[in-house]
User: Fold this.
Amino acid sequence: MEVRVNVTSVIQKTVGGQRELTAEGGTVAELIDDIDRRYPGFRDQLVDEGGQLHRFVNVYLNDEDVRFMEGAATALSEGDEISILPALAGG
Amino acid sequence: MPRIPRAIADAIIAHAREDLPNEACGLVHAKDGQPVSVHRVTNVAASPYRFEMHGMEQMRLEQQRDERGETLFAIYHSHVASAAYPSQTDVRMAFFPPGETDREPAYPGTFYLLVSLAEDPPPLHTYYIHKGGVIEEIPAEIV
Assistant:
């Protein structure tokens, strides 16, 4: 399943300076693993040891927050678009 | 010294007031280093104590900056009852992963702009949050 992935400036440093890349996977977790094989360390920034997305990492599947779907287990389809960015937050 | 057009300062203060009782947040874009536009972003935390920008709105604004050759001048938010000074949470979240202050900040060269509704008229202050979590106020001139 090939999916287009958009990242923001904060993440692009970890994927060789690109804002857009393609990756493969049947789920969000597999997609992250695929990118991590090419850019080691990518995965650790996004998911914890249990495979759950970190609280302040946003992942959108076609504009929908995957947290309101199945999180890292959310299934992907050919042609989907994934956006990954750290939350801009504070108090 | 950063120069902020009065209209931009007023737009930020108006947003802060409209979003009471919650914190307001958004981005200021710059062209050739000069602030040119204010972009409100939904605070998905919808809280008087926290803000969290809507991720897709944030992403689209970054894409818009790229298309227009603009940069991120400032990340702004309001404090509804405390001073216009970065909180510990603000500093922690200025790094990615959060709290890893031994790295470069997530948005180097971007100001953190805070407005406080604890005073009237609401003061507006600009800061850099540096590596190590060091807060430096950079007084802005409202022009």
User: Anything to note?
Assistant: The longest helix of chain B spans residues 55-68. The longest strand of chain B covers residues 71-79.
